[in-house]
Design goal:
The protein is mainly α and about 170 residues long. The chain has six helices and two strands, in the order αααααββα.
């Protein structure tokens, strides 16, 4: 059995995604080193993965740029965190053009499930344990509550589901 070199950057990808999910749950912050690390590992993945080439890489970079720009608009409106935007753009880079729609749909599904979990009694117990997620009082004239959800967990889960299995077929 020969050593599959393309699995080395893939292992780094999985580790960095796990780190992003953990840190987002723990502190509601995705360290900048995670998306930077994902972007630095991606060219190695591009060179070693079977079926990858410059055309696929250029298209993947275009998809990632589009996701980043759309995310930047959402961030400017206060609808998504900046770390989530960077992580989703880096995940799009790894998913490639064929996996981008599945990545976005699964991120939405996992994020919705995570939001529902936060609103359950078990989610409130988890909130008490972490001290970060759940319902928080929003300042301002509206004086309403809003849900704070570690969406990086949903992004990381979707990225792992979309990116890892095609590399084992």
């Amino acid at each position: 059995m020969s050593f599959a070199l393309h699995l080395v950057p893939l292992a780094g990808f999985a580790g960095l995604m796990a780190m992003a999910a953990f840190e987002d749950f723990r502190r509601l912050i995705i360290p900048n080193a995670v998306p930077v690390g994902l972007c630095l590992l991606w060219p190695l993945h591009l060179m070693t993965a079977p079926g990858m080439g410059l055309a696929v890489g250029a298209t993947a970079a275009g998809c990632a740029a589009s996701v980043f720009l759309a995310g930047a608009v959402l961030f400017s409106r206060g609808l998504i965190g900046g770390g989530d935007v960077k992580l989703l753009a880096a995940a799009t880079l790894w998913a490639g053009p064929a996996g981008t729609p599945a990545l976005l749909v699964l991120t939405g599904v996992f994020g919705g499930l995570l939001c529902l979990f936060v609103l359950t009694p078990m989610g409130q117990i988890t909130k008490a344990a972490s001290g970060q997620i759940g319902l928080v009082q929003e300042s301002g004239a509206a004086n309403r509550e809003r849900a704070v959800v570690p969406y990086g967990m949903a992004i990381a889960a979707a990225a792992l589901v979309v990116t890892i299995p095609p590399n084992f077929s």
